[in-house]
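Here is one chain, start to finish.
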Amino acid sequence: MKTMSKYKTLTQAKENFSKSNFKSALEKFAIVLQDFPNSKEAYNGVILSEMALSGEGGAEALFDYYEILKGEDKESADKIISDILQTMDGTLDKLSEIFAEPLRDRLELEDGILYKDFKDIIDNGANFKETFENIMFSTRVIITQKEDFIDFLDNLIEHGFAEMALTYLENALSVYPSDELLRKLLKKLAKSSNSED
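Its structure:
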């Protein structure tokens, strides 16, 4: 398979996935993977398509998140999604053990924290800005649901991380230009920057 048709086939696979045609998406990703066994994008696509075919609810949200991440940095997007998929694949016991540890130990053990767990810490009275700054320098926040992504952006805006929120928003809007929630957040961000000037 020529490189040109690799990208064409990957594009077709992603279009099929977006249209919930998971069987065709799986076939296209598999074709690329056969000729390019080191293609992380094809490999992740195969796993996500299989998850969607077997009725896993998070597959589509993960796929959307993957597309957003690729807009920022393709290599780290491949790694983040691979890590999430590996975590989901038979290591949930290990994950729950890690999350039973106190926050500081947890951050040392893992190179990522699920947004849901980060939210639990905030809901238990921790300061968002302080906790996020501590996490930002030692690990990354892993977001797997669109609602969590919106909530995360909203919190970034609320707590003075406007520049970071804008970067995320621009990338998300390049993938979902007509998404109402993202547009509302962009307006909120513009208002908060105007009030600071």
